[in-house]
Each structure stands twice: as structure tokens, then as C-alpha cells.
From TrEMBL:
The gene is rlpA. The keyword Lyase applies. Residues 23-111 form the RlpA-like protein double-psi beta-barrel domain. Belongs to the RlpA family. Residues 1-18 form the signal peptide. This is Probable endolytic peptidoglycan transglycosylase RlpA. HAMAP family: RlpA.
Length: 146
């Protein structure tokens, strides 16, 4: 029974990570004095990269950021924590701010949403999806997931 509980918790965890994320709010961009400094993920920050900071999303999460005033969108990868200014939901690199066309204003109303990515072929969830059924045997009981 313990093995089944562990498997179900793992599947729920993977499923939650694969779910869509959507948020709206204000975006800002990194000041130039952060160039070359380490981000919270350990990467060296570059204003020419397509990266961003978010308070809670896992490092490596890819987001579509859309400027709600002009509908321009970019894809960024989360590699840092922040912003820590009330009312802001994301800090993007200068390159992303320029492509979103809010570099001169410094702040923009944006939506951010997770970029749908297929599951890696070796992931447990991918294997479960491609099985016609998964049968678990434990103490003489048979459990089927379809």
C-alpha cells in the first residue's frame, strides 16, 4: 500500500508541474548594474539573454510574456528570484523588455503563462501516458490505472 501511495504522490506532483500557469500584472526589467552578477539559480546574468525573475516558479520554467498594451510576446526562461517591489510579477532582461517594447517606459502590464512543453521521453508520466494500462500488484491486490 505504501508503494501505491508513493506512486500516486509522484504522479500528482508531476501532473501539477505540467499544468498551465497564468498570471497578469506589472513587469519591469533588470538594471544594467546586474550584468555579470550571479542569479539565484547560479547562472551569470546577461541583459542580452531571454531570461527573467519570478518569485516562485521553478528555475528553467519557460514563460510566454505578453505586453497587454501592444500584444507583443516573447519567451523567457526563469533563472532568478524577484521582483521584490510590490505589484510587480516579473523582471525580464533588457533584451526581452526591448522586444516587448516597454524599455523606455520601464514598466508594462503583462500576462505571463507557462509555455507548453511535451514531457521528456524518459519521464515517468510520459511512460504512464503511453501504457494501455498500468497494473500494480501489492499484497494480492491488483490496481489498474487507465
Amino acid at each position: 500500500m505504501r508503494g501505491l501511495v508513493v506512486l500516486l504522490l509522484l504522479l500528482v506532483s508531476l501532473w501539477c508541474q505540467a499544468q498551465a500557469f497564468y498570471q497578469t500584472g506589472k513587469a519591469s526589467y533588470y538594471a544594467s548594474h546586474f550584468e555579470g552578477k550571479l542569479t539565484a539559480s547560479g547562472e551569470v546574468f546577461s541583459n542580452s539573454a531571454m531570461t527573467a525573475a519570478h518569485r516562485t516558479l521553478p528555475f528553467g520554467t519557460q514563460l510566454v510574456v505578453t505586453n497587454l498594451e501592444n500584444q507583443k510576446s516573447v519567451v523567457v526562461t526563469i533563472n532568478d528570484r524577484g521582483p521584490f517591489i510590490k505589484g510587480r510579477i516579473i523582471d525580464v532582461s533588457e533584451r526581452a523588455a526591448r522586444q516587448l517594447d516597454f524599455y523606455r517606459q520601464g514598466i508594462a502590464n503583462v500576462s505571463i503563462e507557462s509555455l507548453h512543453q511535451p514531457l521528456p521521453p524518459d519521464s515517468l508520466l510520459q511512460k504512464v501516458y503511453h501504457q494501455p494500462r498500468l497494473i500494480l500488484h501489492k499484497m494480492g491486490h491488483e490496481f489498474m490505472l487507465h
